[in-house]
Amino acid sequence: MTPTPLAAALRPLLEAARGPAAAVAAVRGGERAVLCHGPAGEGSRFETGSLTKTFTALLLAELAARGEVRYGDRADRYLPFRLPGPPLTLLHLATHTSGLPRLPPGLLTRAVRSGWLGNPYAGFGEDDLLASLRRTPLRHSPGSRVHYSNFGGGLLGHVLARAAGGAGGDYAALLAERVTGPLGLTDTDCDPNRPQLKGHWHGRPRPALLMPGLTAAGAVRSSARDLLRVLTLLLHPDTAPDPVLRTALAEVQRPRLRVPRTGSRLCLIWNLRPRPDGALLHHSGGTRGFTAFAGFLPASGTGLVALTNTAPTPLAPFVQSAYGALRGLGSAPSGEVWTARV
User: Fold this and answer.
1) Of 48, 135, 207, 313, which residue is 20 to 30 A from 236 by alpha carbon distance?
2) Domain that holds residue 284
3) Mode of pairing for the β-strands spanning 337-341 and 31-37
4) Domains in the chain: how many in total?
5) How far apart are CA 94 and CA 80, in angstroms?
6) What average pLDDT is seen over the chain?
7) CATH number at residue 237
């Protein structure tokens, strides 16, 4: 079969992946293409790192659409203690304006002592998350500045699990019940024990990532097949299986604030860059063994996923290549489907 224009456009991106395995996929109108390298296939599971937060944002929007939470709710409304100072809301956590540092204080020190070269987050659990929150002063007043925070992303998932009537550690089960299950994402969950590709760091194999205390910030595994389905649903929320998820899929891509000095906007976790031909929404992620990117252009019905099983390198060239490939994709659909292995 002759490669479609979309498949041909993806091939340089696949070749830019430095891991032993890679999968890149795109949708453009009625055209779909998936290219795989090495042991990867459409359904192979990669660690997605901070792409996890986009699932956490969708879970937040799902609970909000049901009326179980409000974006302006104080986070401590669902915690066993009150936080001092000005209100820290769910929206602050979902837009990186909480004032929390990037990581909980003490986590890196503990990781260096116990597992920095193996699983640096493994010894940090839900109790540690709450203990760190109680003793962490905010860097700034909530809502006043944008400061990327894995701490905030992990806390958001913990709070949502409590808001839905469970314990903070029930995030993974709640995500499956409310999001990944209804959307038919059979390859997507937080389970490190299900089969997944082996990650690599500086050419060396890595153990599966463990993040018991910050699950909602970086522990989701997924495949090119599932992530492409998510992007297709984001491009066409009206095709989601129920009204609540249709609302949630639209809500996560609604701009919430302007990022100073950049012209960019923040939606619920998703970054939005205005362009003459329409907004480009994107997010990336990385772990000690994987790099992931996802982005979409609603105006042209275009979305792109890029996954490889090696850790990000300085300046993240694979992520930059994926972003450039998404920008470069045309908008004319061909209506063809293409899957290839190289």
Assistant:
1) 48
2) 5-341
3) parallel
4) 1
5) 21
6) 93
7) 3.40.710.10
The residue written with tokens 């070269």 in the block is 117
281 beta partners? 272, 296
User: What are the pLDDT digits (tens) for 70-86?
Assistant: 999 999 999 999 999 89
Q: 283 with 54: CB under 8 angstroms?
A: yes
| Residue 337: pLDDT over 50 | no
Alpha-carbon distance of 195 to 187, in angstroms, equals 10
Cα–Cα distance measured from residue 248 to residue 241, given in angstroms and rounded to the nearest whole number: 12
Q: What is the pLDDT of residue 115?
A: 65
- CA 94 – CA 64 distance, rounded (Å): 13
Q: Single out the residue of 164, 179, 192, 169 nearest to residue 287, CA to CA.
A: 192
Q: How far apart are the first and last CA of the chain?
A: 14
Structure token digits, residue 53: 């937060």
| pLDDT of res. 144 | 96
Rounded to whole angstroms, the Cα distance separating 81 from 91 reads 19
Token pair for 49:
């790192």
Say whether pLDDT at 227 is over 50.
yes
DSSP assignment of 241-272: SSHHHHHHHHHTTS--EEPTTT--EE-SS-EE
Three-state DSSP state, 56: helix
